[in-house]
Amino acid sequence: MRDDGIDMGGTAARRPGEPWRELNDVGCGYLSVYFSEPLARWPIREITRPADNKSDPNIETGTYGLFSTCEPGMRNRIVHDGAATVFFLTTRKKHQGRVISGYYHLGWYTEGTQGAVNRDYALAADTVRFIDPILATDLPEPLATLCSAPFRTMKPIDALAVASLRSLCDERPDRTKEYLGEVTRIESFARARSGYAYPSWAREGGFTWDDADDYYQTDAELSKVPNSSKSRKWRCRVCGYLIKSGALLKKCPLCKQMATLAPEEEVA
């Protein structure tokens, strides 16, 4: 059991209070593809991705979309459709193909920094389980075809596929602690090289539940903000700071204000 109350080897015992609400579960789910860290021993998210440091899947808090703006469409559909299980896939080696690394069963949701107007819902898991990676093509059919067939970032799956994949993951040893150890190690490596665990965020440390309050939606007058920038440049509406990032950040790296970044081409 971790200090924040989450048993990362099974059920996330920490039950979030307000503003979190229970998420309906109709048995369906999603396959979600993420970039994995080339310097890590386990396929954690790509923390050192140049100008685009990744925070999801945020195994250390058991959340998705709380700290990042990744996959707003998927998060929106999960909330509205009750597709409460997300299986994570990534590619570790060229020509190897995708592997399945683990899953979340989601128990709660809330509006994120950008608000529902931007389909920004944060999701919290009641179960977190990561395993020795399984090559997608080694899965039994029809799961092998389902998981290895080309798709870019995410794919909805039905209740039968969810139950089958979860059974395969649950029968394997839980490696979540090893994944967490790699997150800490890579953050330390990045900090030793640049002074920041997440240089593109100007963030010195990792993520904990102590950070969550800053990322909840508080401004009822939020406008719609594109989740991508053609120039990969973003301007802060408050301090005017211009940053380069592969994805929209929820917090300005300079003034630390929330939901103030917009594509440079729209602000200019």
TrEMBL record:
The lineage of its organism: Bacteria, Bacillati, Actinomycetota, Actinomycetes, Micrococcales. InterPro entries: RUBY_RBDX. Residues 234-257 form the Rubrerythrin rubredoxin-like domain. It comes from Microbacterium horticulturae. Its cofactor is Fe(3+). Pfam families: RUBY_RBDX. This is Rubrerythrin rubredoxin-like domain-containing protein.
